[in-house]
Design goal:
- It contains no helices and eleven strands.
- By secondary structure, it is an all-beta fold.
- The strands form two sheets. Strands 2, 4, 5, 6, 9, 10 and 11 form a seven-stranded mixed β-sheet that branches. The protein has a four-stranded antiparallel β-sheet with strand order 1-3-8-7, with no helix packed on it.
- The mean pLDDT is 95.
């Protein structure tokens, strides 16, 4: 059973940085897609995903250059480095995972496993 536990959220001012972590257990194959999603009041949206087998990454167009997704095999942890944060980045951030044969879309419905979320608040 896959379990995902996020941490690292908090409150920062505009222009600040945060690094989110997602401790994953139960992922025993490289053929997994993992990702970060966020939800403000409204729909959950994709932030970034990574296909573990070849490390291909995908980003929401509006976030390219500010956010970086990475994964450490040594401790099975997924990271999201967030820089130059803006108030519109405020929301609950979720880690997600699913088995995949090579695709890794920024689509909520593609993922089977979800963490409980961690809150990020950016103040102006």
């Amino acid at each position: 059973q896959v379990q995902l536990v996020e941490s690292g959220g908090g409150s920062v001012q505009t222009g600040g940085s945060l690094r989110l972590s997602c401790a994953a257990s139960g992922i025993t194959y490289s053929t997994y897609c993992m990702g970060w999603f966020r939800q403000a009041p409204g729909e959950r949206e994709g932030v970034a995903t990574i296909y573990l087998d070849d490390r291909t990454t995908y980003y929401a167009d509006s976030l390219k250059g500010r956010f970086t997704i990475s994964q450490d095999n040594a401790d099975n942890t997924l990271y999201l480095e967030m820089n130059s944060l803006k108030p519109e980045d405020t929301g609950e951030y979720y880690c997600a995972a699913t088995r995949s044969r090579g695709i890794c879309p920024l689509a909520v419905t593609f993922f089977d496993y979800w963490g409980q979320g961690t809150q990020v608040t950016v103040s102006s």
